[in-house]
């Protein structure tokens, strides 16, 4: 880094995204993307006029998409804020509500620590139980911002929406952020709770269940007063935060419900199939409600399995956090990809 950089930036360990190799073709099961293409109907609905319209700045309010999301969930447009991926939504939340401190699980989405550092939020890590579940009572009356990924990142384990509601009730004087990046593979959405609780912020994305990771669109649903706070952050940072084409793609994708439900059910079925096959090979597989599974075998360390799979053209993710460093995280791919994965793992373990 240069000598001009601030001490804080100098100290920060930035988020390390999963590999996005451009050189070689891998079976890519490392960053929890959707294996299926973006809805063709959504892409086909983009017109030449939309493209020519790029001479203008994008609508800072993303009005068409905001309307679509509000209708979809039966909330008001003033309960919705559109962001550049849900990472930006989370960044806005940490900026608006993190100064009083933030708490989250010791094993969860790695970006929370980066945001906490970046935006001067004292962070508390609440250990998951031995079986990687969350004991909700550890999240009661925290007096600081509570952040929960549900289903949780890295483990895939989800809390029932009834438990989420209890956490929200027991934190009436502070904000609870529920990061729902993987919620559609679980099926219990916390968004309806925003009508009852004015301390709940729900963060969602188009990156996973709606196959739009590269378009970078996320959104926040919350009480209208919270949306005013978060808009203040947005308009102090980047008013035109979402580009016109991504906004239209997301709107069109949300209107293609048939394609969405088909993709999601295929992925849920493949997740169950992959978990069963891994168990047959002797793996311990955490019960996932997301589009990935965290799995380990006694026969080989997590890092070694990751490396062997990479040599065989399959990318999965390995994390060096102590509690999960003997696991690999595998994104659910197509049925064909799952078959190749299982066959390759079998070969690797047999040739050991
Ligand atoms: N939350 C969680 C739990 C995630 O795993 C991810 C994806 N890495 C995100 C948020 C951010 O996703 P995006 O910015 O693509 O919406």
From TrEMBL:
<protein>
    <recommendedName>
        <fullName>Histidinol-phosphate aminotransferase</fullName>
        <ecNumber>2.6.1.9</ecNumber>
    </recommendedName>
</protein>
<feature type="domain" description="Aminotransferase class I/classII large">
    <location>
        <begin position="25"/>
        <end position="345"/>
    </location>
</feature>
<dbReference type="GO" id="GO:0030170">
    <property type="term" value="F:pyridoxal phosphate binding"/>
</dbReference>
<dbReference type="InterPro" id="IPR015424">
    <property type="entry name" value="PyrdxlP-dep_Trfase"/>
</dbReference>
<comment type="pathway">
    <text>Amino-acid biosynthesis; L-histidine biosynthesis; L-histidine from 5-phospho-alpha-D-ribose 1-diphosphate: step 7/9.</text>
</comment>
<dbReference type="GO" id="GO:0000105">
    <property type="term" value="P:L-histidine biosynthetic process"/>
</dbReference>
<keyword id="KW-0032">Aminotransferase</keyword>
<dbReference type="Pfam" id="PF00155">
    <property type="entry name" value="Aminotran_1_2"/>
</dbReference>
<keyword id="KW-0368">Histidine biosynthesis</keyword>
<keyword id="KW-0028">Amino-acid biosynthesis</keyword>
<dbReference type="InterPro" id="IPR015421">
    <property type="entry name" value="PyrdxlP-dep_Trfase_major"/>
</dbReference>
<dbReference type="InterPro" id="IPR001917">
    <property type="entry name" value="Aminotrans_II_pyridoxalP_BS"/>
</dbReference>
<comment type="subunit">
    <text>Homodimer.</text>
</comment>
<dbReference type="InterPro" id="IPR005861">
    <property type="entry name" value="HisP_aminotrans"/>
</dbReference>
<keyword id="KW-0808">Transferase</keyword>
<dbReference type="InterPro" id="IPR015422">
    <property type="entry name" value="PyrdxlP-dep_Trfase_small"/>
</dbReference>
<keyword id="KW-0663">Pyridoxal phosphate</keyword>
<dbReference type="GO" id="GO:0004400">
    <property type="term" value="F:histidinol-phosphate transaminase activity"/>
</dbReference>
<dbReference type="InterPro" id="IPR004839">
    <property type="entry name" value="Aminotransferase_I/II_large"/>
</dbReference>
<comment type="similarity">
    <text>Belongs to the class-II pyridoxal-phosphate-dependent aminotransferase family. Histidinol-phosphate aminotransferase subfamily.</text>
</comment>
<feature type="modified residue" description="N6-(pyridoxal phosphate)lysine">
    <location>
        <position position="208"/>
    </location>
</feature>
<dbReference type="InterPro" id="IPR050106">
    <property type="entry name" value="HistidinolP_aminotransfase"/>
</dbReference>
């Amino acid at each position: 880094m240069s000598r001009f950089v601030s001490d804080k930036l100098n100290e920060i360990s930035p988020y390390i995204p999963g590999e996005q190799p451009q050189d070689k073709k891998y079976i890519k099961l490392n960053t929890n993307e959707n294996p299926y293409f973006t809805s063709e109907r959504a892409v086909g609905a983009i017109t030449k006029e939309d493209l020519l319209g790029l001479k203008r700045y994008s609508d800072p309010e993303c009005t068409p998409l905001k309307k679509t999301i509000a209708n979809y969930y039966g909330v008001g447009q003033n309960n919705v804020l559109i962001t550049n991926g849900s990472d930006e939504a989370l960044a806005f939340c940490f900026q608006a509500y993190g100064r009083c401190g933030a708490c989250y699980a010791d094993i969860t989405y790695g970006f929370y620590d980066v945001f906490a550092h970046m935006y001067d939020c004292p962070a508390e890590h609440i250990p998951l139980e031995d079986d990687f579940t969350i004991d909700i009572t550890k999240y009661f009356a925290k007096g600081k911002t509570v952040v929960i990924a549900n289903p949780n990142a890295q483990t895939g384990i989800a809390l029932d929406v009834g438990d989420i509601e209890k956490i929200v009730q027991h934190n009436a004087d502070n904000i609870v952020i529920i990061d729902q990046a993987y919620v559609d593979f679980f099926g219990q959405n916390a968004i309806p709770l925003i009508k009852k609780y004015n301390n709940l912020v729900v963060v969602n994305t188009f990156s996973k269940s709606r196959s739009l990771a590269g378009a970078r669109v996320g959104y926040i649903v919350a009480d209208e007063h919270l949306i005013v706070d978060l808009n203040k952050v947005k308009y102090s940072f980047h008013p035109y935060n979402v580009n016109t084409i991504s906004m239209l793609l997301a709107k069109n994708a949300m209107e293609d419900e048939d394609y969405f439900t088909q993709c999601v059910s295929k992925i849920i079925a493949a997740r169950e199939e992959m978990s069963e096959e891994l168990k047959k090979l002797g793996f311990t597989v955490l019960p996932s409600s997301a589009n990935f599974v965290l799995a380990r075998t006694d026969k080989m360390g997590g890092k070694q399995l990751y490396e062997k799979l990479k040599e065989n053209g399959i990318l999965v993710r390995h994390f060096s956090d102590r509690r999960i460093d003997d696991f690999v995280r595998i994104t659910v791919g197509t049925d064909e990809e799952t078959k190749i994965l299982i066959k390759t793992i079998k070969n690797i373990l047999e040739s050991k």
